[in-house]
Amino acid sequence: MVKFLPLSEAVAWNLNDGDTVAFEGFTHLIPTAAAHEAIRQGFRELTLIRMTPDLIYDQMIGMGMARKIVFSYLGNPGVGLLRRARDAIENGFPRLIEVEEHSHAGMANAYEAGAAGLPCAVFRGYRGAGLAAVNPNIKTVSCPFTGEVLAAVPAIRPDVTFIHAQKADRKGNVLVEGIIGIQKEAVLAAKRAVVTVEEVVDNFDELHPNLTVLPSWTISAISVVPGGSHPSYTHGYYIRDNAAYLEWDEIAADREKFRAWMQKNVMERTADDFAARVEHLRIAA
Amino acid sequence: MVKFLPLSEAVAWNLNDGDTVAFEGFTHLIPTAAAHEAIRQGFRELTLIRMTPDLIYDQMIGMGMARKIVFSYLGNPGVGLLRRARDAIENGFPRLIEVEEHSHAGMANAYEAGAAGLPCAVFRGYRGAGLAAVNPNIKTVSCPFTGEVLAAVPAIRPDVTFIHAQKADRKGNVLVEGIIGIQKEAVLAAKRAVVTVEEVVDNFDELHPNLTVLPSWTISAISVVPGGSHPSYTHGYYIRDNAAYLEWDEIAADREKFRAWMQKNVMERTADDFAARVEHLRIAA
Amino acid sequence: MSDSKLGFTPNEMMTIAASRALKNNDVCFVGIGAPSAACNVARLTHAPDITLIYESGTIGTAPNVLPLSIGDGELCDTAVTTVSVPEMFRYWLQGGRISIGFLGAAQLDKFGNINTTVIGDYLHPKTRLPGGGGAPEIATSSKEIYITMAQSKRGMVETIDFYTSFGHGEGGDHRKRLGIETAGPTLLITDLAIWKPDPVTKEFTVVSLHPGVSRAEVQATCGWTVKFTDALEETPAPTALELKTLRDLQARTKAAHAATGKEKAA
Amino acid sequence: MSDSKLGFTPNEMMTIAASRALKNNDVCFVGIGAPSAACNVARLTHAPDITLIYESGTIGTAPNVLPLSIGDGELCDTAVTTVSVPEMFRYWLQGGRISIGFLGAAQLDKFGNINTTVIGDYLHPKTRLPGGGGAPEIATSSKEIYITMAQSKRGMVETIDFYTSFGHGEGGDHRKRLGIETAGPTLLITDLAIWKPDPVTKEFTVVSLHPGVSRAEVQATCGWTVKFTDALEETPAPTALELKTLRDLQARTKAAHAATGKEKAA
User: Using the beta-carbon criterion (under 8 Å), do C257 and B242 form an inter-chain contact?
Assistant: First the structure.
């Protein structure tokens, strides 16, 4: 059964050194507060899975927490490159990391297969693409009816998935809305799931029946962290801090600047600091 | 581009003798008015696809319109058997029909594969089940990573799909809500799609972004037919006419009674008659 | 059958015995009929937090009246969420999230194999039944399967005409040999008795007789030679609360379903 | 570059030329940057009903400002519907519903093959670029591919370092030989010219020079020997409406993106 816990406890209880972990969010609802908590607790040897690794994996890689990264777009969305990830891959700083690279279609299908309890995903993909030659986890199967050769990738089954969502009800059901990305699949594919939410409401009685609601029994822990997806955004609560994404490009460009920023903005902070960061981004009610 | 047409024109334009056609609806939103229009227009040699054939396929089979039926549950839901379909399969009356039978999982995955543009669906199914031995369209593929043997069925790609939905906006976008069943997949899997709706509204500006909306360019024709799913129901408009389902069991039990009922309630009627049939079932506003 | 002697009917006993087998943290894939009644009695008595899922896509539903079909509006209105049918079968059933799959049967054999497809030959059936619907995969993807049915020699047979859904096959480790990793049928509740599979042979064995039922009655309404456990128990009779809950539910259901026909009849 | 002489910049010409290639009934899979600007200029001028789809799941979106990322809230707020990412890639892209896939490139070869993955060796890259994201399947599932990029010898190369997405491969019928049934790159729009593939060889050939651009300039900024069509045209200069639409859009965008940083800077 789901537990409501402070974020530090939810992270400590569900994440372990060496875990395969997904902090998911497709531009929207990125679980930054949870990632920062994991950084403060200093986990090591993680396999980080995410379609769009974004700032938080740049930070975790820069802090030397990752053994391997599984991804389909290693960029700062709309801005450019992820410079800490580049430094690790190009120069082995602060350590070498293993890379498993897919296309978005490959990752999306692999999460879907994980949620669906299948060992692999089958789709039409990677035709003529170089990734098929460098990633041994891209194979093929033939359609037994037409003979068409289709791509196959292993299902993604994280030890634990972290997501950020709009709200939970008191029973621990969770609502995700807006650009819902891959979050439902990432939760259902995982052995354990931790959700940070903007707020808790009494009940979901007035919700439309077809919204994306994760039943309480699919979640391990919920932590209330207003602003927890900053500098990403939470549809209905606050907008994306585009300036922070532009700013990150400069911070991550320099190893020392990065360490100093992390020390000041992550290591010496807590999850409670996120609310203030989105104050000027809140949507007028 | 989608056209708003009277139902008789929409059916005449999109359905042809010999077509493979799906009238979908999973207990909810069954497109009865469209099926009755097809019966009146007297199409022949149809391959009828549907997870739960229900009363409308019992009627079409009883009228001798079907060459073949593809299904996963040939019952009157909650009541019992479909007696006209039985008469065709057991006694060849009014004609013999070919049967292709799947499980719900098989049909749902096959529609999903059709919507996804794949030649086949791959899932964990039919293990130890007798259908795998009698249906040559149930085959297997092996996972190239684990060796697990999975079931495969061909994708469903109807020539035309008919569904009933709550409403369209003036641009021809369509909203389906409540028990959404397999309708989105059935539309996206088909070459052509016809939708009957309860009403047309100016726009969908106030709709929640994650509802099931079929964009206008995925639909061939829309016909406004209030009550068009009776004796099934339309969430938010009127409730299921359970008494009519119970009554059908008696009507369909007898060949003569069936013909007389069809003559009176289908052949001599029009789509405009549906509104009155749901008057006593409308949900209090 | 009359309830004059015992104060309850065999069917009521069956439904209530089935409801008792359900736990508060179960996630049930519910079929229509006795399973639906049993699951909702459990929810209204000892298992208020039980999760009921109907294959129409309604998750965590709490209907006030029993649905006639698996897709009645009541199920959606009271659900935590309603998903598409492909999602239901992919993420929720195949995803391994169902603890108890509840199945009924037209024909059942002693190993929990079920036929709801045809009586007679598949290609030239004597009686064409509705078929499997969700059952083939419910039977293999749910962690456990509970079966409910009223006993009869026609229904409980030595050999079923068609394997709509797989139970324990020929018994023993037949499931494992087919690569099926779930437990399969672990409980059979009839109108006369409670049955559990033998740990080794997997043959259904009577472990409890309902009040007033004899071994002879169980055998007389079953097409195979019935095995009884050594420590045979008597099923506790329905409590007043259980009976009232079931009967109120059925009365509400009857009234609601009849209501839609009123204007027609008038 | 300055717009003082012609009244518009090469980048503006590129974006506007790309916007003109789009039709009112197109369904575009839009990437960030020039493609996004082009698609929205088309929507705001001659193609008001064009369907714009961003891979974040937003279908039929009509943003008032250009998104910085493919998942900005503006896209969802103005969309006809917003679906999950697996659905986007399965039903909408793989389902064959996209008429035009719009791609940019870090490296491009003359057959429309694109590299956005690495400069140098894949395992030991000189520069690790973001990678393909949606591009590998956009390139093969969209009915046609339009490419936009600013010309440079570093970007338009004889041989790309990595096949992030497949264009016409080695040219000719290479797509067909790999079982790819879609048309692939049918249009390349740079800041200097409009290019189309030769019907047989599939090599990109310049069909139109933007106003004031010479053949020599095109060749000087391209890493392969450029072919020009016999009937070489001049791209019509941007109209006042096109320019105003693009500049207004970019001004709105700049104001909106800067706004989020205001309090920080203060």
Answer: yes
